[in-house]
């Protein structure tokens, strides 16, 4: 157990910023943000977890942290993103940790739990279905229409400039609260900063990580008004979990940590306590 606060951890020659808060002897919970957010997306959720005795570690992930922005699409393959999380787990001093992720962070949580179950005490995904369920759902018009932007992001250079120029109106239209939008814009609303995060989308097809069924205790918290991730994928996720599983549907949109932190914290606490 880390008895002092982590402010950074290193992996693959990169340095990642981390927010380490909560009781020093608390149960370790890793909080993984999505796109186009950063570790501050957990600002409302983390204090609620601390009240339950949990210690939280929220990193800025690869491509987001200033010291962890490697050049080139290959550096963002899924195997590297998964290895970053196990490196953070190592840095906490714990053999097993609880994982929580939203959006892209949720996808990585599923992959870490499926490929390294010995490192994961439990997992909670906010919004994001199991990746294999999402791929299956994408064969249907409902999810394919929601995921159109993934194809657009494959273009070089252009998406970075379009998103930088229209960062605020694009994400405001999805229901992201203005306070959070302004904070994320300060971090990412320029083309150079968007290159790494967009490379997450571009590197998926070159990746070598399997989306195995998950055997660790798992929860999916999904908002019925999610603009990006539809019902089909959420419901199909049950078929890719072999261990204890909870599917919680709430009346909310995509930005769960920002808009319904109490529901997020309750789901995490219930899952963590179920294995304590």
Topology diagram in text:
Layout: E1 8-11, E2 14-21, E3 27-32, H1 46-51, E4 54-59, H2 78-92, E5 97-102, H3 104-115, E6 120-126, H4 131-137, H5 141-146, H6 148-152, H7 158-165, H8 167-172, H9 178-188, H10 191-202, E7 218-223, H11 231-236, E8 245-250, H12 256-259, H13 261-274
Parallel strand pairs: 3-4, 3-5, 5-6, 6-7, 7-8
Antiparallel strand pairs: 1-2, 2-4
Helix pairs in contact: 2-3, 7-10
Describe this structure in words.
The protein is an alpha/beta fold and 276 residues long. It has an eight-stranded mixed sheet with strand order 1-2-4-3-5-6-7-8, with helices on both faces. The protein is globular and about 45 Å long. It has a single domain (8-274), classed as 3-Layer(aba) Sandwich (Rossmann fold), CATH 3.40.50. It has 13 helices and eight strands.
Task: Give the key terms.
single chain, 276 residues, alpha/beta, Rossmann fold, eight-stranded mixed beta sheet, 13 helices, 8 strands, globular
Describe the global form.
globular
Under the CATH scheme, the architecture is 3-Layer(aba) Sandwich
Percentage of residues in DSSP E strands: 15-25%
Task: Determine and state the CATH class.
Answer: Alpha Beta
Please give the share of residues in helix: 40-55%
**Within the largest sheet, what's the order of strands?**
1-2-4-3-5-6-7-8
Q: Domain count, please report it.
A: 1
């Amino acid at each position: 157990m880390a008895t002092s606060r982590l402010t950074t951890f290193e992996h693959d020659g990169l340095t990642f910023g981390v927010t380490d808060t909560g009781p020093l002897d608390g149960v370790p919970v890793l909080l993984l943000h999505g796109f186009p957010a950063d570790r501050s997306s957990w600002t409302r959720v983390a204090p609620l977890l601390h009240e339950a005795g949990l210690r939280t570690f929220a990193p800025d992930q690869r491509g987001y942290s200033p010291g962890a922005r490697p050049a080139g699409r290959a550096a963002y393959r899924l195997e590297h993103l998964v290895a970053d999380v196990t490196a953070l787990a190592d840095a906490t001093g714990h053999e097993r940790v609880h994982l929580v992720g939203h959006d892209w962070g949720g996808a990585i949580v599923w992959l870490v739990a499926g490929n390294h179950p010995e490192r994961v005490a439990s997992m909670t995904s906010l919004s994001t279905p199991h990746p294999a369920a999402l791929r299956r759902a994408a064969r249907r018009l409902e999810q394919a229409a929601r995921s159109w932007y993934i194809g657009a992001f494959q273009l070089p250079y252009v998406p970075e400039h379009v998103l930088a120029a229209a960062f605020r109106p694009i994400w405001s239209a999805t229901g992201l609260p203005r306070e959070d939008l302004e904070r994320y814009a300060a971090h990412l609303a320029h083309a150079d900063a968007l290159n790494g995060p967009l490379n997450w989308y571009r590197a998926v097809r070159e990746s070598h990580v399997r989306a195995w069924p998950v055997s660790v205790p798992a929860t999916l918290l999904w908002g019925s008004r999610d603009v990006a991730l539809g019902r089909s994928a959420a419901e199909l996720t049950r078929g890719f979990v072999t261990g204890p599983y909870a599917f919680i549907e709430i009346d909310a949109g995509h930005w769960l940590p920002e808009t319904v932190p109490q529901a997020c914290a309750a789901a995490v606490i219930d899952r963590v306590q179920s294995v304590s």
